[in-house]
Amino acid sequence: MSAAADALFKDIESQxxxxxDQLAPIIKGFIEEFKHGLKxxxxxxxxxxxxxxxxxxxxxETGTFLSMDLGGTNLRVSAVQLQGDGxxxxxxxxxxxxxxxxxxxxxxFFDWIADTVEELITKKARHLFSEExxxxxxxxxxGVCWSFPVDQTAVDRGTVLRMGKGFTLEDVEGHDLAxxxxxxxxxxxxxxxxxxxxxxxxxxxxxxxxSNPRTRIGLIFATGINAAYPEPVESITxxxxxxxxxxxxxxxxxxNTEIDIFGGDWYLPLTKYDKILDDNHNQPKFQxxxxxxxxxxxxxxxxxxxxxxxxxxxxxxxxxxxxFGEAWSFPTANMSMFERDTTVNREKSMEILxxxxxxxxxxxxxxxxxxxxxxxxxxxxxxxxSVAIAAMIEQQNLHNKTNNDIIVGVNGSxxxxxPFMEERMHRALREWFGVELSxxxxxxxxxxxxxxxxxxxxxxxxx
Length: 463
Ligand code: GLC
Description:
With 463 residues, the protein is of the alpha/beta class. It folds into two domains: 1-51 and 213-448, Hexokinase, domain 1, CATH 3.40.367.20; 62-198, 2-Layer Sandwich (Nucleotidyltransferase, domain 5), CATH 3.30.420.40. 46% of the residues lie in helices and 18% in strands. It is built from 18 helices and 13 strands. The protein has helices at 3-16, 20-39, 99-102, 106-124, 131-134, 177-188, 200-211, 241-245, 272-280, 288-293, 295-311, 332-340, 347-353, 364-395, 398-401, 413-417, 421-440, 449-460, and strands spanning 49-50, 62-70, 74-83, 88-96, 140-146, 150-154, 157-160, 192-198, 215-221, 225-232, 252-256, 406-411, 441-445. The strands form three sheets. Strands 1-11-10-9-12-13 form a six-stranded mixed beta sheet, with helices on both faces. A five-stranded mixed beta sheet has the order 4-3-2-5-8. Strands 6-7 form a two-stranded antiparallel ribbon. Helix 1 (3-16) packs parallel to helix 14, helix 4 (106-124) packs across helix 6 and helix 7 (200-211) crosses helix 18 (449-460). The protein is globular.
């Protein structure tokens, strides 16, 4: 490797391989933000949003329930059959939200959702519903998993806050999600009642509690990152005293932390690359922590670092390949391929690079450098995701309170499909908590958290 590459790696490693000393201020900062969010009303860019979910399933519940799950890319509408013993069966209709839908009129977007619900009830899962339900004579209950911030006022009411993930819908922010959905259902003649709104993190925690009732954290690590955990109602002082007193003493409520928007530059170790990414983003200064680590951004961070190597003449012979110079032109999925590619001549990686045009063909050394950059970015992502877990363990005092395993339900493509992510997260947790405690932290995959969680909360909150 060239001296220029060596020097650059040294510099970048010192910023991206976070040591215990560098993790400490972030964890402290997060815990301070938890405390602040617990007392600050959920307006505007809210954090620590109460879910009004105070019950967890025990795994024995049965029945068929509807759920809808909207994430950054896909809409899933499902009929979830709870079979008891922690087992579920899901039938879903899945649709991709196009940019046109994501950036257009709210009413058009919600009509599209209503059409998908109709398709599930009248076609795909027709056999699971009665004649009255299909012909809209009888009401069907729906749990809506909304992977965006919502200011919840009750389990089934909530004002849509700023959405992120490329959504800029007209006439949606500031409106009640239940009203927007019911209006669309009415336009389609559907008799569907939204009786639970939940963030995907809350859904993940609840869905995982169905198979492991000891779950104490729900983490999403996908396009975005966010987490939920139970907090004693008496500590959630942003709720009125009257509201808090209406729950039996000792009740815990799941909180959607919206940890994605945590992180001022006074404690996040933002690098020059994070700052460039943020400056070029259509929502600058928003979700700074999320931008440092989640699936939507890892590829772009890698590209920005690679550009510095190219400029120093240490990569691709010093020429920016055509197609590589534009922001967002290196998707995170490419990184997974590079890190996973064990072929001798790195054929898979070469194939990815063939999407760009080079002055001189890329060499094996180029690929080795690019892969090492991917590893650094992904290792930092893992450490930063673990920091959220560590902060929630400390906030709940789980590290002192129990000798049992600490169960974290994790959902999301970045966690599930990015190579070595789980190992890297464990390594960061070990760095922070030491071997003994970190061995008790179980990161368990909670698949279909949104759909199953939505159905479970719709069931738990039926009137
Ligand atoms: C974003 C959203 C948040 C969601 C997370 C994971 O950060 O703001 O509500 O939970 O992505 O999908």
